[in-house]
């Protein structure tokens, strides 16, 4: 009897750990598997240049659509992040040394993909004295040298605990769009974005606008993490106080069962309601839908922002052609 109990105990101990059930996605989230020729070409180019992309590392649901059009968001400073946010699929650990060839490789990728607009992001590099800011500067300079017609959008970390000079150097390099995502409402920071501080992120964006009002500023939030509607409205108000031009909002999707759970699948109609409120609060541009991501349709949205600003600055009474 004792032997049978021991046998049952050992069988239980050796059984694989239960895997949490996969959360079923609603129909409006489904996307096609990436298979196109354009997708394969983009993938091959990134591999040959030894470049990481946030499209792959973050398991973005739009990769099939974006890469078919050869729109990829390059992730500089390696593929290993020094933080461990509960929503993010990028691996955490001790990153490798910064690749000095990376800026030229990014410029080559932009040229070969024929990009009119490029989005460059990075992992967090808390291990570097400047948080990796100088690499952003080098990438911007390489792009301006090699593909001067390409407009540049950067999506940076928060550079928390780094000197202001680090961010000022990036601003001086002159990106067209400076993006930094607030990601979620302040109440959820301790669990979702524990290494970051909500007001530090806001201050970063506010300081970009103060130093260079002509640079478009942009920020995004994910919904479905357990935030309340009024908390999201408050984030919009905070963003407007920091004079942020462009708000992006998308549905959070759990990349693996180890990551934060989806608390709610926000309906497309609820996204429309958020977008209407955000527009009323005065953003120059708003993109809000379940599959919206910071860099989704970034080139088209950049042109929309330019048009919106031109309209805003036009003397009263001058009606634009086709307006
Ligand atoms: S939305 Fe952005 S991150 Fe996602 S695949 Fe497109 S370019 Fe890449």
Q: Notable features of this structure?
A:
about 325 residues; alpha/beta; 8-stranded mixed sheet; two-stranded parallel sheet; about 40% helix; globular; binds iron/sulfur cluster
Provide structural commentary.
With 323 residues, the protein is of the alpha/beta class. 41% of the residues lie in helices and 13% in strands. The chain has twelve helices and ten strands. The strands form two sheets. The protein has an eight-stranded mixed β-sheet, sandwiched between helices. β5, α6 (133-146) and β6 (151-155) form a beta-alpha-beta unit. It is globular and about 65 Å long. The structure holds iron/sulfur cluster (SF4). Residues 54-55, 60, 62-63, 66, 71-73, 293, 295-296 line the site of iron/sulfur cluster.
Radius of gyration: 21 Å
Portion in strands: 5-15%
The global form is globular
Sheet with the most strands, sense and barrel status: 8 strands, mixed
> What percent of residues adopt helix (DSSP H or I)?
40-55%
- Measure the end-to-end span: 86 Å
How many strands appear in the DSSP assignment?
Answer: 10
Overall average residue pLDDT: 92
Order of helices and strands: HHEHHEEEHEHEHEHHEHEHEH
Work out the helix count: 12
Bound molecules: iron/sulfur cluster
Which strand order spans the largest sheet, edge to edge or round the barrel? 1-2-5-6-7-8-9-10
Low-confidence stretches: none
């Amino acid at each position: 009897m004792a032997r049978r109990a021991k046998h049952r105990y050992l069988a239980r101990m050796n059984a694989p750990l239960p895997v949490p059930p996969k959360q079923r996605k609603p129909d409006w989230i489904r996307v096609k598997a990436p298979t196109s020729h354009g997708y394969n070409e983009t993938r091959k180019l990134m591999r040959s240049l030894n470049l990481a992309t946030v499209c792959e590392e973050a398991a973005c649901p739009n990769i099939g659509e974006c890469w078919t059009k050869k729109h990829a968001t390059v992730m500089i400073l390696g593929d290993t992040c020094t933080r461990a946010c509960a929503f993010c699929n990028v691996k955490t650990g001790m990153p490798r040394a910064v690749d000095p060839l990376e800026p030229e490789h990014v410029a080559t990728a932009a040229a070969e993909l024929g990009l009119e607009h490029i989005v460059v992001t990075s992992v967090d590099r808390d291990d570097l004295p400047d948080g990796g800011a100088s690499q952003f500067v080098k990438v911007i300079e390489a792009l301006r040298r090699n593909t001067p017609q390409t407009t540049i959008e950067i999506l940076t970390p928060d550079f928390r605990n780094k000197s202001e000079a680090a961010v000022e150097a990036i601003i001086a390099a002159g990106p067209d769009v400076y993006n930094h995502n607030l990601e979620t409402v302040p109440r959820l920071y301790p669990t979702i974005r524990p290494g970051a501080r909500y007001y530090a992120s806001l201050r970063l964006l506010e300081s970009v606008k103060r130093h260079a009002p002509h640079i478009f500023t942009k920020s995004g939030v994910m919904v479905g993490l357990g935030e309340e509607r009024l908390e999201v409205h408050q984030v919009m108000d905070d963003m407007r106080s920091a004079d942020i031009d462009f708000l992006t909002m998308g549905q959070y999707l759990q990349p693996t069962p180890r990551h934060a759970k989806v608390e709610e699948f926000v309906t497309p109609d609820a996204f429309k309601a958020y977008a209407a409120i955000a527009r009323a609060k005065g953003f120059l541009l708003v993109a809000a839908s379940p599959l919206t991501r910071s860099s989704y349709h970034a080139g088209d949205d950049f042109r929309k922002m330019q048009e919106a600003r031109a309209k805003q600055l036009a003397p009263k009474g001058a009606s634009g052609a086709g307006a």
